[in-house]
């Protein structure tokens, strides 16, 4: 992930402001808020600026995933080109859904909040949508998870990595 963050940080910041690069990185699946905060620390953006940018950037795609992903997947499964990809994404998300199924709100919050590879708001939203968890409940759980991930990644990005870079 660090290599991706570094690549996006370098390439995006050539064309837009470092803050804009951090915002966009926070919207990208796999990188999300984790990558945004890491990029912000590498680009020497203060945590006070970076945290709101990363949170908003990470939140923007969530309602669209929760509301529309099942319908989009349904249409894409009908095409030969995307059927395999959609089935792979669904399968991968459902393999990670055991804790979310069992504990719903708390499971979804922890899934999104603990910054491990393959977890985060995008995958959490996909799982919530596929499991048909109530949109209000899933939105709140995902938001709480994003806040939890923010705290963890702030400590990692600005504490550990920030001290190593300086």
TrEMBL record:
Entry keywords, A to Z: Membrane, Transmembrane, Transmembrane helix
Instruction: Reply yes or no: does the keyword Transmembrane apply.
Output: yes
- Pfam families, per the entry: Sm_multidrug_ex
> InterPro entries, alphabetically?
Sm_multidrug_ex
Q: What is this protein called?
A: Predicted membrane protein
Q: Which organism is it from?
A: Blautia wexlerae
Transmembrane region(s): 20-43, 50-73, 105-128, 140-161
Question: At the top level of its lineage, which domain of life is listed?
Answer: Bacteria
